[in-house]
Specification:
binds guanosine-5'-monophosphate, single chain
Length: about 140
């Protein structure tokens, strides 16, 4: 798969973006098609197409920066009273740009944003079975 994405150009300064935060590892900028006003993207500067390719240390940094941005969204002019983090890993999960990115989405009542889902109520034995199976598959 071609590792090039528009985010690489944004990180390098070759494509425009409304930047909010930057350090040696991470860049945050406004999503060009916000689902709510103030919708941000936090990206690692190193190329990682998906979670499997992302250094966990940098992944931790994405979350830390997301936390600070959430505080800024609540405290500043955006003035939201809730925030969603969203990360799509893989086509089936809705990933469109193949450079890992954390969406930070400010929420206000009635803003129209939501996830569609059909929750189920499996028996405890099924939950325990899958818990053990997933535990066994954890990377070392
Ligand atoms: P995904 O569906 O991969 O989780 O989200 C990709 C996000 O990147 C979308 O919300 C989309 O609006 C945003 N996006 C795509 N191209 C650009 C761009 O050129 N600039 C900015 N700022 N955001 C982009």
């Amino acid at each position: 798969m071609d590792p090039y994405t528009i985010f690489a150009d944004i990180i390098a300064g070759r494509a425009p973006a409304s930047r909010v935060y930057e350090d040696e590892d991470v860049l945050a900028f406004m999503d060009i098609r916000p689902v709510t006003p103030g919708h941000l993207l936090v990206v690692p500067k190193v190329v990682a197409r998906n979670l499997a390719e992302l250094d966990p240390e940098i992944g931790g940094k994405l979350f830390r920066v997301g936390q600070r941005l959430a505080a800024a969204l609540r405290a500043g002019e955006v003035g939201c009273d809730g925030v969603n983090f969203f990360l799509a890993d893989g086509v089936t999960a809705g990933q469109e740009v193949f450079h890992v990115h954390l969406h930070v989405i400010p929420r206000t009542p009635g803003d129209g944003f939501g996830l569609r889902a059909r929750p189920t109520s499996p028996p405890r034995a099924d939950l325990d079975y899958l818990a053990a199976s997933i535990r066994g598959a954890l990377p070392r």
